[in-house]
Design goal:
alpha/beta, Aminopeptidase, Alpha-Beta Plaits, eight-stranded mixed sheet, 8 helices, 16 strands, 34% helix, 24% strand
Length: 393
């Protein structure tokens, strides 16, 4: 199959799909309209084997010739972000305070494009392709874990699964790959420092949780600078501090919210214990207490080396060596990592940056947009990767 012919045939269809999804963004676990639209598109394509095991999201199956030969999966996330879209485009979000600013509309469109071609040409390949349209990538609880618990990787069992993500720093027409560890683990941290409030002019009669919070933050940063192995990437960030006092009021408590990211599971567990010890000991030394919530979050994304190398070689064959890029590790997290615990997996990057300035904003930005030529590249890549994996014994 020639990429230029594919682009001409599918481009308008893909753009329309993406813009429709983009206009109606829905937050994690609220993707009802998005799920219904994807269901309608799959049905129009002709796909009938569709399951909706969760309240949002769905699983579809396309069978080629000899469907029991092998089963692979393509995954797309479908949720949006709580961001008010500020860029003016004809397909701007209709839902105030909600926006597809992380490209999940693109991911879904690319998988739908692959589904359309694979179904229409199901007599040309052997095996089974499972399509996983997953809710709640942006928010815990993880939609990937929920889909796995709903047996999305079983019946038939998925041997390999592929995911993609938009990348505005890559020019449209390029794909990015990395074997092995790729994206960091991510744990959320919630601290409540409980002191004793009072008048700001009488600090000796209070137990000031703001000062205690400052001490805790400074000490926790030393875990990264002085306890972490310098060759093990580690990030500890607090992005939300709530005291609710005033210029002359010391509050009773302070809430801190943060994130912990790394690439080493042993160090991750050790670091969480050290965080708890510092928080408790520091608060206690001031006569305060600290309530700590640190639920287990996302594991790091690990790309199966053999699978990744096969797809990288495949991409080179239709895009050229100059358009296949080696990606650095990223401290961002992805719940796609959950699938890799059960099936061989790889997560690649789709270049979406174009000549227009509005295509170069980073993800999670209210001006985020893509060069829509990337839709054809992403869909074509998913098709070619599917065919490649189905033919490998």
């Amino acid at each position: 199959m020639d990429f230029s012919n594919f682009d001409q045939k599918f481009s308008d269809w893909l753009i329309n799909i993406r813009r429709t999804i983009h206009q109606s963004p829905e937050l994690s676990w609220e993707e009802y309209e998005t799920t219904n639209f994807i269901f309608e598109v799959l049905t129009q394509i002709g796909i009938t084997k569709i399951e909706r095991p969760l309240k949002t999201g769905l699983i579809a199956i396309i069978e080629g010739q000899n469907p029991t030969k092998k089963c692979i999966a393509l995954r797309a996330d479908i949720d949006a972000l709580p961001i008010n879209q500020t860029n003016e485009v004809s397909y701007k979000s209709k839902n105030a305070g909600k926006m597809h600013a992380c490209g999940h509309d693109v991911h879904s469109t690319c998988v739908l494009g692959a589904a359309k071609w694979l179904y229409e040409n199901k007599d040309k390949w052997q095996g089974t392709v499972k399509l996983i349209f997953q809710p709640s990538e942006e928010k815990q609880p993880s939609g990937a874990e929920a889909m796995i618990q709903a047996k999305c990787l079983e019946n038939p069992k998925v041997e390999s699964i592929i995911g993609l993500h938009v990348t505005p720093e890559l020019a449209v027409g390029k794909l990015g790959f990395r074997s092995g560890m790729f994206m960091a683990s991510a744990d959320e941290i919630y601290l409540k420092i409980i002191g004793k409030g009072g008048h700001g002019a009488s600090p000796h009669l209070c137990i000031d949780p703001i000062v205690i919070s400052a001490n805790i933050i400074v000490q926790l940063q030393q875990l990264v600078s002085r306890y972490a192995n310098p060759i093990t990437p580690t990030v500890l960030t607090f992005g939300d501090i709530q005291g609710h006092g005033a210029t002359n009021i010391i509050p009773d408590s302070v809430l801190l919210k943060g994130t912990l990211r790394t690439f080493d599971e042993s160090w991750r567990a050790t670091l969480k214990e050290k965080i708890k010890a510092i928080c408790n000991n520091t608060a206690s030394s001031f006569g305060a207490t600290c309530e700590i919530e640190m639920p287990d979050g996302l594991a790091f994304v690990y790309n199966d080396p053999i699978l990744t190398d096969n797809l990288k070689a495949c991409a080179t064959s239709f895009l050229g060596n100059e358009n296949v890029v080696e990606m650095p590790i990223r401290m961002g997290a992805e719940d796609f990592s959950a699938y890799g615990k059960h099936s061989k997996s790889t997560f690649f990057r789709l270049g979406t940056g174009g000549s227009e300035a509005n295509t170069t904003f980073t993800v999670h930005n209210s001006n985020f947009n893509i060069d829509e030529k990337a839709l054809s590249v992403g869909a074509f890549s998913m098709i070619q990767f599917s065919l490649k994996l189905l033919e490998i014994k």
